[in-house]
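Here is one chain, start to finish.
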Amino acid sequence: MSTGSGVVSTIVKKWREHPPSSYCLKVDNFKQLEKFTTSSDDKYQSRLFSAGGYNWKLIVYPKGNKKDNGKGFISMYVEIDSKSLKSEQQCEVFAELIFFVYNKKENKYFTVQDVEVKRFNALKTVWGLRQVLPFDSFNNPVNGYVFEEDQCEFGVDVVVPSPLTNWEILSFNEKLQKPKFSWTVKKFSQLKEHEYTSKKFSVGERNWVLKLYPKGNSREDDKWLSVFLHSADSDAPKADEKIFVQAKLRVLDPHGSNHKAYQSIFFSFFY
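Its structure:
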């Protein structure tokens, strides 16, 4: 990852008390592991383990993956089982990887993570980190990674995000068919009720009504005419649904051009 001022690392290192939840590899004799890997391409591959509905292997290079510029470090990788990919229609899996090295001295796990989600597919079945810890620091018993007669512990968390199931669509439609609605109220001076409701009208694929309060909608003040836009009850929003509406309310003067109009306002209808 890069910015205008230079390269920004995506590697995060920190201590954690909780052990790995996907897989753990406990080694009784690290020196024997080193000798074993000299005849197996410098790496040890764990048995298969399951995480996120797929099968994986943890791969550890005790003295580093020389082919990946990891010489002189502990290198750790994760490989997805090819059979897991063949059984999937999309043939690719996204996963977050966190690598663990236990430290007996701190009684915690040193964790290293590349925060970028990795894409596993038939062309790229292995992802990991070539430089988890310097070998000399790891192999020095004083530092606590190797303890109790050459024991050590590695681990990994493989987090496969769940498929997207929740979303919302935010859209604005400024070109509406028949965006205007007129309501003629006859014999206004003879109105006795506190509230009147217009017939239902449709704009923007939703139903609406106007509500008129001849003496205002506040009991404390009967000197104003009040008009409100409402979502029609039969077309109420769904649970937690929001509807943003830009409306202009006008009271027309039937004898001239002294109309009363209010600046367009955004209304939010939600339940």
